[in-house]
Each structure stands twice: as C-alpha cells, then as structure tokens.
Queue: 4 jobs
Job 1
Amino acid sequence: MTGSTPNGSPHRPDGDRNVIVSQRYRFRAAAHVLSPDCPVLADLMPAEVGPARVLVILDEGLTHAAPWTTERVQQYAEAHGDRLTLAGPIEVVAGGEQTKNDWATYERVVRAIHDGNLCRHSYVLAIGGGAVLDAVGFAAATAHRGVRLVRMPTTTLAQADAGIGVKNGINAFGKKNFLGTFTVPWAVVNDPSLPATLSDREWRCGFSEAVKVALVKDASLFERIESAADSLGQRDEGVARSIIQHSAELHLDHIVDGGDPFELTVARPLDFGHWSAHKLEQMTGFRLRHGEAVAIGVALDSLYSALAGLLAWDDAVRVVDTLKRIGFSLYDDALQNTSDLLDGLDEFREHLGGRLTIAMIDSIGVQRDVHDMDRAVLADAIDRLRGTSLQHL
Ligand SMILES: NC(=O)c1ccc[n+]([C@@H]2O[C@H](COP(=O)([O-])OP(=O)(O)OC[C@H]3O[C@@H](n4cnc5c(N)ncnc54)[C@H](O)[C@@H]3O)[C@@H](O)[C@H]2O)c1
Ligand SMILES: [Zn+2]
C-alpha cells in the first residue's frame, strides 16, 4: 500500500511504520527554588483544572543534613496554594544506593501514588541524590504507565549527570539498574544551593562525571576543570556551580540532539569509564560511591586509550592528574581481581545488547567506540593506576 495517513506518516510497502514521539524537557537552573516567593516550581507544574496535585518525595540524607527542607516544601505549597496542592503526606525515603538495592522505596512511592489518587496529569516531585531520583523515577514511570516527574537533584553528581538523563531504575539480581525505564522527565530543576549540606566526600563525586562528559564531548570544559582542579579540591562552590551547569548542559544536549536518547543503538558515549565503575561499585559492596568508581573508571579507560595508541600519553596523564587534584583516589584493591572486573565487560554488553561497544577517547573531547579490549593492555593500565603519584605512571 502507498499513500499516507492524515498526519503525513507514509504507508510503506513492507508494512513498517515510524512512531514519532516528541516530548518537551524543561530544564531550569535557579537558586533557592523552595523560597515561597520563587515561581519556578509552580510555573513548571500547570494543571488543566484547579491546582496541580503534587506528591513530594524527599531523600532522607537531605532531610538529615537539612532538616528544614520538609517545612520549606510545606510553606512553598501553602504560598502557591492557588496553583498546587500536596497530594498526600511528604514521603521521606532512604538515600544512597540502598534505596535502589531492594523494592522498598519503589513500593512506597507507587503506594503513595495510589493512596494520593494521582493521575497521569499529577506530579511526583523527587528531591534527592541520584539514587533516590532513579528509584522514584522508576515508580513514577510505571504507575499508571507514567506520572509526570519533576526532579530536583540535591547532589553535585545528580545535578551534573544523574538527574539530567532520561533513565531511571533500581538494582536487581546483583546487577545495577537491571530494572528501569527510559522516560523523559517532565522537568529538572538544578538549585545550586542544595548540595551545600553534602559531606566533602559526596560533594567531590559530581566532578568525576563532569570530567567524563568533558572528555567525550568538550575539550573546553576539560580545560576549565583542569585549571580549577585545586579549587574544586578545596570545595570552591562558586567554581563548582559553573562546572556543574556546563556538564548538565552537555548532558542535556546529548539527550536532545545526540540522536539516540533511549540508547537504541550500541553507542553510549556518556558511559565512558562506566563498564568498570559499575562493576567496582558491586565488587566493593557499594563501599565506593558511584562518583568515586567513575573517577577510577575514567582514569583507567584514559590510560587504556593511551596504551592502546588512541590517546596521547600526556593527555592521559592530564586526566589522571586532574582527578587526583580534585581529591579522588584512583586505585582500589578491588582492581586486583581482574577476572571479576572483566565480568563487568560481559555485563555491560548484556545490559546494552548487541555487540560489545565501549567508549574510549582519541583525544580530549573526542570519543570513539571500540569493540574489544585487550586484556594485557588493561592489566598494564591497572598496574599504572596502582602508583599513587604521576611518577609511577
Ligand atoms: N539515571 C542516570 O542516568 C544516572 C546517571 C549517573 C548515576 N546514576 C545513579 O546515581 C546514583 C548516585 O547518585 P549520587 O552520587 O547523587 O549519590 P546518592 O544518591 O547515592 O546520594 C549520596 C548520599 O548523599 C545523601 N544526600 C543527598 N543529597 C544530600 C544533601 N543535599 N545533603 C546531604 N546529604 C545528601 C544521600 O542520602 C546519600 O546518602 C547511583 O545509583 C548511580 O547509578 C544514575
Ligand atoms: Zn555515572
């Protein structure tokens, strides 16, 4: 059959059709978003009839470090009562990876969506670190096959990376993100005042993801991070803000313009350094934070890229030096268990489907895919990481 449907989609002779879905992604960066006089959140949650119904989920780590958050959310809702209303009690869920390691948070959120009678035009507002955003996002994406999700990331890592993407998920069968969906969030709001209460260790974590996205997308961001590395190591929040913003924008550009937001092909440039990072998190029982494991994975794959003849050696040294000056430790004893680590490659391939495809870099800011990894070269890269100073490289 030839011809076309009323909306212009062609009928093909083989019966195949294209399903084209266009979704709006609303990204805002604004400080003190929970101040009653700030319109950003209320503007993002319109309702067709009456005030928007909003279920709020808070990360317990945040409410512990910033106990005033719950009251601020309540005051915000009261101040904007003509436009939004809380669709149930504010839920506080466990923070950190544990929230993804079982069903408890997922179940709690879907139950709250049920109890609050949320519909697809209601909103789930998730305020927390990447782990809480992943678990709550999975619940919001599956209840009613999708309730609108507004994410407010509260860690540097979630603002630079995890909160920006279109993925959610929880861990199962010992595998990271085994259950989850690709879902475009209704909106993401980065409030630079929120990470202020993080420990130094958690605060540092965002910058390994910023280095990662810079290495695969934008040499100018890498140069900015390289020259700011000592300041970041001393927790200079002013410097950090603009780096987080730059990283988030690159991530968003990739989602919007990269041509494959739902990872239907095998290429995953934003997973540079992640095949080993995910495995290291598991192998250490999540003793290593995601951002710490990513720092090791990025250093490892930068050294691998250089030893495999792709990347100039001096550039690999710059990457290692920058991560170290930010304060990351780039070696963990778990790396000695190469055979378990290499299982990470198989798990990565299985998670992605199709042929093994690993992101490497040709130069700073320029990514390329490889389809196998040479074990001897990898062992050499691990050996070099073991040294704690550049001289050992
Ligand atoms: N969906 C994606 O695209 C994507 C991308 C990258 C990472 N991730 C996931 O993100 C998770 C890591 O996220 P993360 O680095 O944000 O860490 P996290 O969510 O594990 O949070 C770290 C700790 O900080 C606490 N916390 C959160 N905000 C706080 C605040 N403002 N003050 C004090 N404490 C606070 C949390 O309770 C937790 O204890 C991993 O599960 C990773 O797999 C997802
Ligand atoms: Zn990551």
Job 2
Amino acid sequence: MEYITATFYKFFPMENSEEMQILFRGLCEECRLKGRILLGREGVNGGVSGNIENLEKFKKILKKNPNFSGLTFREQQTKENSYKKLVVRIREEVVVFGKEVDVNNAAEYVSSDELKKWIDSGEEIVLLDTRNNYEFDIGRFKGARGLPIENFRELPEAVEKLSDIKNKKIVTYCTGGIRCEKATAYMKMLGFNNLFQLKGGIIDFVNKFPGQDFEGGLFVFDDRLVADTGSYKKLGKCRICGILCNDYTDCYNLDCDNLFICCQNCRIKMNNACCEECRNAKRQRNTVKSPTDYKNFVAPRYII
Ligand SMILES: [Zn+2]
Ligand SMILES: [Zn+2]
C-alpha cells in the first residue's frame, strides 16, 4: 500500500488551542492518521502520515473549518507510515525561535518554478539555508550558504554576521517553509531587503525537480529521519569511519542521545553508540541483535 506523509503549517491567532487539540486528535483518529501536530497561540505546525484515501479525507474535512480553508500541504510518498504514533501538543511556539517576530512581515514567496528559472538563468542569487547544521550536512542546494546553527534559536545571532550578503538577492529555504517565515521576518527587521523565501521549501522543490539543484538527502522530522530527494549524492561523512554517507542514527546511550551521521557498518560495529564511552555506558536504549532489528528501531523525535 502506498502511504503519504504530509506537512502543513499556518500562522494565525489561535485562541482556542484546547478545542483545536480535540479537533485535530479526533480527526486524525477518524482518518487513521499518525503524526505530530503542534498548536499554539501563533497557529499550527504539523506532519501526518497515512494512506492516500484517508489523507484526502483528512484534508477535505479540515478545510471545511474556516481557519484552515486555504491550507496547503507538502506531500511525499512513502512505503509505510512515517510516524508510529499520533501526538497533538500545545506549545508556546509552534516553531521555536525565541524572539518575537511578526510573520506578516515575512519575505515575499518565490515558487519552486520561479526559483528554478532564476537558478538556470545564472543570475547571482544567494541560496541561504535556514536549517540546522546536521540537516545542511547531508543535503543542500548546490552552492548554498549555511549559517551555521545547531538549532533554530541560534538563527538571529547567525544572520547578524551576514553583512557580506546583505545587499545581494537572497532566497532562503528550509524543509517545508515554516522556519523561513520567521527567519525572513527577522532578517527584514535587520535591513535585508532583496529577500525571498522558497514557498513549500525543499519538499516542494524536489517534488517538482527531483535530482536537480538540490543535492544529497533531506533530513525530516519523522521516523524516516532522511527522505529521498532524487539525488544520490552523499554529502555527509560517517562520524566513526569517515566514509561518505547520508544516514543518521541516535546514540543508544540514553544519557547522550546524540544524533549523528553513521554508516551501516559502524552502526553494527558500535552497537548504535556514537563513541566508545557511549558503547560501554550503562543506560542503553535497546540491545540490537541483528541488522534486521534496525528496521524496527524507532528514533526519538527531534522537533524544531
Ligand atoms: Zn562508518
Ligand atoms: Zn553518544
């Protein structure tokens, strides 16, 4: 059976988060979807997965609610559910930035089609990756600039160091678009004026132009960890042995829980640990006996 993983977001003043939590939970259960949905005063940020018919039903019912009538979805086909559970939570921020910004002042959108034209025309643009280091490491637009940041809260400080590109034409991009809404709103406050954000993010671009311009794997915030982009380039390096590789693992030492790039061989050799010390640590996530067990391994959730 074919499954779809869909992500969506909308910024709007949500006054009734508790009611929305009940609505989303009920709707996902009715449509047999798994996923992770964050709700708060600033809006909604979610990802769900399920079979095509159920997902279409979910979209149809959700769009009947006036708050979500114009909602758009970034979709990817998968062989199984990308989420193992359904989690609907209320959060202060649906994407944690740590600074007040007015997303109504975010940069103008550029569509994937338009960006493709700009890239192919050879005009000088800076493709600015607003994601974290560990996402940039395994895949990015050719020639893109990273920030570099460990998490999205570090973005304000990092963009203050971009004075060399302040007057250039900049297109920011992230996985599905939500981070660029806040990032560009903030950058405009700093005086970046020739600024655009990629609508629908990398997911929309690689759906339309797989294997072109975006190279490597796409880090995603569900159980897949890495999604296909149509590019077979490996840009990451195994932390243990150094070979080129786009696979991630979570250190099995529960007191470390580090997310790191690791090849299959080293994963087995190290028993899912990021270093010798972690391999010998007492509190291990699991005991993995054979390589086939890795398929059943459920990674903890990384949330932006
Ligand atoms: Zn390795
Ligand atoms: Zn570790």
Job 3
Amino acid sequence: MSSNERAENYDYWQLALKIHQLNEIGSMELESSKLLMGILQSHGFNVTERFMDIPTAFKAERVVGNGKPSIAFLAEYDALPGIGHACGHNLIASSAIFSAIRTSEKITNGTITVIGTPDEEGSGEWAGSKIIMTERGAFKNIDLVLGSHPGDQWNVGTQSLAVQDFEVTFKGRAAHEAANPNSGRSALDAAILTYNAVNMMRQHVRRDANFVMHGIIKEGGTASNVTPERAVLTYGVRSTDLNYHTELVERFMKIVEGCAIATETTYSVKKIGLLFSTTKINKILSNTIRDKLLERRIDCPPLEYTFNEMPKGSTDFANVSQVVPALEVGFKIAREGTPWHSRESLEAAKSSNARDALRTIIEVLSDTAKEFTENRKLREEIADDFNKR
Ligand SMILES: [Zn+2]
C-alpha cells in the first residue's frame, strides 16, 4: 500500500471502487478484508481478525458512552467467480464500514460493530459464512443488525427463499449391454426416473409456498455399451415456508428411495452446503427505514407490496434475521429490470448512480442506528415484533 493509499485516507467511494478492483472471490477475500479492517482501526474500532475462525472474516467494535444498545452492520466483499463484482458487494462493504463510522460519530451511547461476513455467493470453503456465525452464536449480544444490498430498486422487507442443495448418487451394476443386459442394473435409469418423478411432484405442491426445485444429471455413465453403474444428480430445493420446505425434502427423499427400489439400484444422499433460511421480516424496523427514505423523496414501495412480490433468491442474511431483529435494505443503483450477476450490474456497481445511492444508504442506516440508540419505545416495538413472529 503506497502512502496515499493508506487505510485512513479512504472515503466511502474510493473504498467501493478499490474493492471492485480487488475482485476477490468468496473465502479468498484476503486483501479486501485487510483493507476494511485497516479503515475501521484508523477510526477507533477494535478489530478482531479471523472472527469465529473464518480466515477472511473479522469483527470490529467501537464502544460509545455506556455501550448500550448494541448494533451490528454486516459487510460482504466477495466477487463472483469469472465476472467480478456483478452483485455489487463492493458497495455493501463500503456501506457497512461507513454506516458504522458515521453512527459512531452521531451517537452518545451504544456499541457499534461491523462483522465482515465472507463468501455470500457460496463459491468457497466458507460459503454462507453468516449461517456458520449464527450457529456459533455471533449475534447473541446484539440488539439490531443492519445491512444493505444494491439492486434495481429501493426496498425494505423483501422475502427470500429457503434453500438446501443435495447430491444424489445411484449405484447400479455394470454389464455388457448386448451380451449380458439381464445382469446389468442401470444407475442412469434411477436418475432419469427421479428426474421425472420430481417433475410430476411439481403439480402437487402448495402454490403459495413458492416452491422451486432445480436439478441436473451430473453423471450418467461412461459408454453406451456398458450399463451405467454410477449416476449423480444435484438438486436445489427452495420455498418461502421453512416448515413446508422440510416436508418437500421428505417427499424428495421418498422419490429417491422409490426410484432405487424400482431400478434395483442403491443410493446415497449428501447435503451440499448449509440450509439458507427464509427471512423473518420485522415490520416496525422496515417501516422506520422506509419513512427515512420517503423523507428523502426516495420512492420505496410499502411493505405489503414488497412482501407479496415473488422472491427471487436466497441469502445467508436470512439466517441472521431468524435470531436477531435484522434488515437488509435494497438500494437502487441501476434502472429497473437490469439483470443481476451480469455485465450491466458489474458496471452499475462502480457507476455515479451507485456513488449517489451509497451516500444515501450510509446516511439512512446511520440515522436509523442513531434513532435506535435514543428511542427506547422503538427498541421495544422492534423486539416485540421480532418475538411475536
Ligand atoms: Zn449479492
């Protein structure tokens, strides 16, 4: 790092551009996390590297006044393999770091924490690190979690899909397909039967639960004259209803078992990655932030509208929202309808629109945090709303 690139000299926009340029994929964000820690340190935060034993995670904390309440901002800084920061996590990083710094300047009491959460996109060893952190109790002493995510619209209270990925392996018996077909048992047959049975299940599921199931046949044999003795499928099972998701997985397992019996093959099932939860929406918190956006003449749809929109994806932020009042605010950096994880969103993540939206989101999040520290009634209402869901 040259002298004019010293951490303390970074402002919110230089930081966003630098993370965009560093372009580090999930679980490998070494330089990015180092830079973020350096900036926080230079602003009086106490930094813990390798938070929760995750190499590119960190925790940075600054206590103001009596240290209560406790608010955490979550930073993401992983790029997408191959394309770069096309999900705009460079902006999430800057938003979290500078919202925390601004909050610590605005408040008289509170503990402000930034948690660096690697690999949201799930490309490496620490995929979905927020889930690991949630399970290890990282949010135990935190009263409020704030985050943000760039996109093609401003929004609060978007629902996300629970998702679990699976790998199913069928084992059959190899044989010469012309000379001894009677002694062969095809693992590929089991895989195709499974694929078709899953498609038949689609008609008989709850329509309101946003059931999505996507799968491929990854391996299906080696030569056409040899009975395939091994076939591998991978599937993702998603829904906006966590209990129903469990039911759907059970039905999927019955399908796999049934297809193995029918084809006289054996099978094994492996979970891939962690279970991403649905988002627990906090209405009070969502509306508090929406009011702040409306005050700034920013068009943000009402919660009832957003909540009923079709959820598009899954995020490990959802798991955090299940254990502590939390909200990830969507901020608009591109025209509506812009496809994400694309060349367009890659450019949008370093555009002047992004710079303006980033400045706004930093002010909105730090104003929200300030209000939270000062307004006991708001804190109680947010906690009540969390506990009754
Ligand atoms: Zn993202």
Job 4
Amino acid sequence: MKHKERRVVVTGAGRGLGRELVRHFAEAGHTVWGTTRSRSGMDDLERHLMLDLMDEGSIAGAAKSLAEQTEGIDVLVNCAAVDARNFGVEPDRCDIHEISAEAMASVFQVNVIGPLLVQQHFHGLLCRGQNPIIVNISSQLGSMVVGDTVGSDVAYNVSKSGLNMLSRRAAASYAGDGIAVVMMHPGWLKTDMGGPGADLEVSDAAQQIVATIQQQTFEDSGSFIRWDGVVHPW
Ligand SMILES: NC(=O)c1ccc[n+]([C@@H]2O[C@H](COP(=O)([O-])OP(=O)(O)OC[C@H]3O[C@@H](n4cnc5c(N)ncnc54)[C@H](OP(=O)(O)O)[C@@H]3O)[C@@H](O)[C@H]2O)c1
C-alpha cells in the first residue's frame, strides 16, 4: 500500500488516538471514515459512521451505510477500546482481588467481542478492497511477558490478550481472502486513557502508526508490532 490512496476506516475517532489517526491518514492523502458512538466528536470528521461496539445492530448499520458509499475498503483500524474505569470502577479496585465479573464482561464486550463483530460485518467490504489489512490496536498490557507484571486493570490486560488471540485466528481464517491482520501496541500515549504522564504525544505516535501501516504487507499478517514497526514480544 505504499504511496497509494487507500480507503480507511478507524473506529473510536471522536477523541484520543482514533481522532489523530483519521487526521494523519487524511493528511497522507487517504480517504478516511471515522466512527463514533455518539454525536460527540463527529463534526470534525469529513466522513462519519455511527458505531457502538456494544451494539451489534449499530455495527451492522455502519457497514451497510459504508457499502452504500464505497465498493470496498483497504484498511480497517479497530482502535476504540475501554478499560474498567469506563464502567465506573475505581482505578485502585480493578486488580485481581477486586475486579468484578460485571466489569470483566463489559471490558471484554467492547475490546474483544466488539472488534470481532466489526471484522465480521466489514469482511465483505475488506474482501472487495485492494491488499486489505485489519489493524487491531492492542497493548503491551496484553503481552504475556509485559502484562504479567505491568498494569493495574486486570480486565484490560485480559481483554488485550484476548484481542491478540482473536487477531491471530482472524489472520489465519482471512488469509484465503487475501486479508492481512496485524496487532499493534501504539505506545503509552497522552490520551484520556493513557493520562498526562504518558511517554508519547498522541499526534507523533499517530503519524508513526500511519507510516508503519503503510509498510505492512500480506507476509506480515499475524504479527504483533509496535507503533514504529518493531516486533513486540508476545
Ligand atoms: N493511551 C494509551 O497509552 C494506550 C496504550 C496502549 C494501547 N492503547 C490502545 O489504543 C487505543 C486508543 O486508545 P486511546 O488512548 O485513544 O483511548 P481513549 O482516549 O480513552 O479513547 C477511547 C475511544 O474509544 C471509544 N469507545 C469507547 N467505548 C466505545 C464503544 N462502546 N463503542 C465505540 N467506541 C467506543 C471512545 O469513544 P467515546 O468518546 O464515545 O467514549 C473513544 O473514541 C485503544 O485500543 C487502547 O486500548 C492505548
């Protein structure tokens, strides 16, 4: 996909990394649809789809609406995600001793089942794309060698490990359709999720992520990489 216009969908585009990815893809000359689950943030998007990862009807509706606008898409970035704080859990009450079954299930619903359903409903559009690729934004906290010692929110850690396995299964299953699937740790970012003490400015990371995605080939499918393209340990 080098230096060629691509049709891109980014979920969670109202704020944080998703919003910056849309901006940098557009600046690089690509055609980008950003999804939001509410009207918040949608006015800044040139092309917008309404999509709530907790509502399969809305995911199906977004795919249907997109199919009326384009024959296919080339890049799907599953960026939207949550941690237990999004469901009212105090940051100091989401470790292995205290996390509730409800919080575990809710985070899993958004971070794993959500991307699964997005992949399913956008599969037809990807099949009609050029060198199509799914980029599932994961986290170092889903890594067995990083996440077993780092991170305070066990629901988030487990969900990102689950997303990695989902992505590996998708890479294998979609290979016959020519669809590549990669997982990406985007870096520790200064967003609402990452907080102000994070390592990276979100715009800088988004710029690098767009460049890294442009360099991915079908042979990279199944890889877990960082924002800068370096392979991430499992
Ligand atoms: N920030 C970090 O340091 C960091 C590190 C590693 C990995 N990541 C990953 O990077 C990605 C982006 O994170 P971020 O820092 O940009 O997070 P963020 O600032 O908290 O933004 C999260 C995004 O997800 C959307 N979202 C939440 N629930 C949703 C739902 N049910 N349906 C659809 N969209 C929903 C939010 O939309 P609303 O505005 O409607 O809530 C928002 O656009 C995530 O996959 C995250 O796990 C982040």
